[in-house]
Amino acid sequence: MRKGERETQSVTRRPGRGPRVRSGRRPSRLHRLAMATLALLLAGFAVAAWAQPPTDTPSAADIPPSIATESPTAQAQEGRHLFEQGCVSCHGFDAEGVKGEGPSLVGAGEAAADFYLRTGRMPADQVGSEPLRKPPRYDDAQIRALVAYVGSLGAGPAIPEVHPALGSLSRGMSLFNESCAGCHGTGAKGGVAIGGYAPPLGEATPTEVGEAIRVGPYLMPRFSEGQLDSGDVDSIARYVQLTQEPEDAGGFGIGHIGPVPEGLVAWLAAVAALLLVARLIGERGAGAPPPDSAPEGDAEASGRGEGAKP
Ligand code: HEC
Ligand code: HEC
Question: Ligand 1 center to residue 118 CA distance, Å?
Fold first, then answer.
C-alpha cells in the first residue's frame, strides 16, 4: 500500500525527487494524531455526559415551607410578637402603615412577607431607598411565624408552588426575554429600571422568582395569573436556574469541573478540527490521481489502507 501511494505521489507532483516522498508520511502522522485526539475527545464527552446527573430532579428547596407543624393561629401569634419588636416602627402597630415610613401590610399576603423576609429586604434599614437583598435577619421558624401573621391580616397572594422541572426551558427563555430582560438584562445578569436597580437573579430561588412575579417588589410590576400562569412561572424559574450555572450557558457542562478544563477541551477540539482540515486539504492536493490514469475510488482506497495499516 505504502509503495503504491508513494508512486502516485511522485508521479503527480515532482517526478524523480527523492526527498519529496517523505512528505507522504507527514499527513498520515497528523491524521493519526487528529484521529487519536478526536477519539479521546469523544470518549471524554461520553464519560462526561454519562457522569452528569440529570438536572431535572426537583430538590427539597423548590418546595415552599407551606404547611407548618404549629397551628396557624399559634404561629400567627408568635409572628405578632416578632412584628411588635421589629416592624411596627415603620408599618404601624396594626400593620396599617405609617405615613412616610412603611406601607400598610393589610392584604400584602404571605407571598410578599415570605419574599421580603427570605431575601433579607425586611426589616429595612432605611426608608425611601430601594430595599436590597441581604442575608435574612430571621431564622426559618421566625419567618414562617411572621408570614402567618401578615397572611392573617387580610387576603393576599399565597406563596406560589414553583416546580422548575415541570417548566419548558425554551418557553421560559422567550417569556423572560419578553417580560423580564428589559429590566434584569439578558441572561438575568442585572440591569437598570427607571428610578431603580434591577438586581441580577443569581441568588433567587425558584420560589422567590415566583413570589417576585406575583408580588412585584418595589418598582417591579406584578404579573397576575392571567398574564403569566403557574406553568409560565415554572418555565421562567427553570430558565433563571440555567442562567445561574454560567459554565453551561454557552454549551453543555463537562461534569462541572470548572471553566479552565472546559475551555481547554474546547481549545483542543478546535485544534483537532484544524488538523483534520489541514489533513483533508493535504490529501486533496497530494493524493489526487492523475486525471486520466487512475480508476475511480483509487485515492479513497489508498487513504483507507493507510489508516488501517500504519
Ligand atoms: C425602616 C422601616 C421598615 C422596617 C423596620 C420594616 N419595613 Fe417593611 N417595608 C418598609 C418600606 C419602606 C416598604 C416598601 C418597600 C418596597 O415597596 O419595596 C416595606 C415593604 C414591606 C413589605 C411589602 C409590602 C407589599 O405590599 O408588598 C412587607 C411584606 C414588609 N415590608 C414586611 C416587613 C416586616 C415583616 C418587617 C419586620 C420584620 C418590616 N417590614 C420592617 C419599611 C420597613
Ligand atoms: C420594570 C422593571 C422590572 C421588570 C419588568 C421585572 N423586574 Fe424583577 N425586579 C425589579 C426590581 C427593581 C427589583 C428589586 C426590587 C427590590 O429591591 O425590592 C426586582 C427584583 C426581582 C427579584 C428578586 C431578586 C433577588 O435577588 O432578591 C426577582 C426574582 C425578580 N425580580 C424576577 C423577575 C422576573 C422573573 C421578571 C419577569 C417576569 C421580572 N423580575 C420583571 C425590576 C423589574
Answer: 12
Q: Long-range contacts for 183-186 (Cβ within 8 Å, ≥24 apart)?
A: 183/220
Rounded distance from Cα 47 to ligand 2 centre (Å): 39
Give the residue ranges of the chain where pLDDT is below 70. 1-28, 30-31, 33-70, 246-266, 285-310
**SS3 assignment for 152-208:** HCCCCCCCCCCCHHHCCHHHHHHHHHHHCHHHHCHHHCCEEECCEEECCCCCCCHHH
Look up the domain containing 228 and give its range: 160-264
Q: Both 74 and 142 in a single domain?
A: yes
- Decide which of 137, 157, 177 is a domain's last residue: 157
Q: Ligand 2: which atom is nearest the Cα of residue 193?
A: 2
| Lookup: cell for 144 | 414562617
- State which H helix or E strand residue 84 sits in: helix 72-86
Q: How many separate domains does the chain show?
A: 2
Answer for the pair 131, 235: CB distance below 8 angstroms, yes or no.
Answer: no
CA–CA separation, 296 vs 310, rounded Å? 23
pLDDT tens digits for range 251-288: 454 444 444 555 566 677 777 777 887 788 777 766 55
How many other C-beta atoms lie within 10 A of the C-beta of residue 137?
A: 13
Residue of 121, 133, 220, 239 to mutate, ligand 2, most atoms within 8 A of C-beta: 220
Question: Left (φ > 0), alpha (ψ -120 to 50) or beta: where does 107 sit?
Answer: left
**pLDDT score recorded for residue 147:** 97
Helix and strand tally (H, E) in the chain? 12, 2
Integer angstrom CA distances of residue 143 from 111, 115, 214:
12, 10, 19
285-305 per-position pLDDT tens digit: 665 555 554 454 444 444 444
The residue whose CA is least distant from atom 39 of ligand 2 is 180
Q: Read off the pTM.
A: 0.68
